Amino acid sequence: MLTARYSTRAYLRHLDTIQFKTEIRAAAPRSKYPNFGVQTIAVPWAGKHSRFTLMYEAVAIKVLQAATNVKRAAELLGLS
Asked: How high is the mean pLDDT of the chain?
């Protein structure tokens, strides 16, 4: 049983568009189960408990592999 009052806001970092930082803001639906209580429904664009989209994570891994160090990779990805 899905109910709107159990929706939560999700803020996920996505791949940047040109020079603009891109975030996905969505209400992730939650469902109340008699045996398990309220649980968030998985969204197809992000991993469980992730703050990044799957596509962003894939690019971040490639950047980390190619960068000389983690600090430089963070700069290229626009992370602090």
From this structure: 79
For the question of whether the overall pTM of this predicted structure is more than 0.90, the answer is no
Q: Which of 39, 34, 35, 33 is nearest to 7 (CA)?
A: 39
Question: What is the phi/psi pair of residue 29, to 5°?
Answer: -70, 150
What does the alpha-carbon distance between residue 25 and residue 49 come to, in Å, rounded to a whole number?
15
Distance CA 7, CA 11 (A): 13
State how far the Cα of 38 lies from the Cα of 6, in Å rounded to an integer.
8
Task: Answer whether 6's CB lies under 8 Å from 32's CB.
Answer: yes
Q: CB of 52 within 8 A of CB of 13?
A: yes
